[in-house]
């Protein structure tokens, strides 16, 4: 019984997405626009943090190599 409800919910959501794509109107309410903006802001923040971590790791490796070489 639970599987049937889950399958029906999935089909309903899939049909909703397909109908929005066909009508070329993805954002039908202000909530759609707000959730889309929040999602992309979240992705942007995560990517920014990943880039900062990569920069930190690369700079630390370079700086550590220079410090080791200067002390010898």
Automatic annotation (TrEMBL):
GO terms for cellular component: membrane. GO terms for biological process: regulation of cell population proliferation. InterPro entries: SIM_Modulators (IPR053081), SMIM5/18/22 (IPR031671). It is a single-pass membrane protein. It is found in: Membrane. The keyword Membrane applies. Keywords: Membrane, Transmembrane, Transmembrane helix. It holds the Pfam family SMIM5_18_22. The keyword Transmembrane applies. The chain crosses the membrane at residues 33-55. This is Small integral membrane protein 22. It comes from Cyprinodon variegatus.
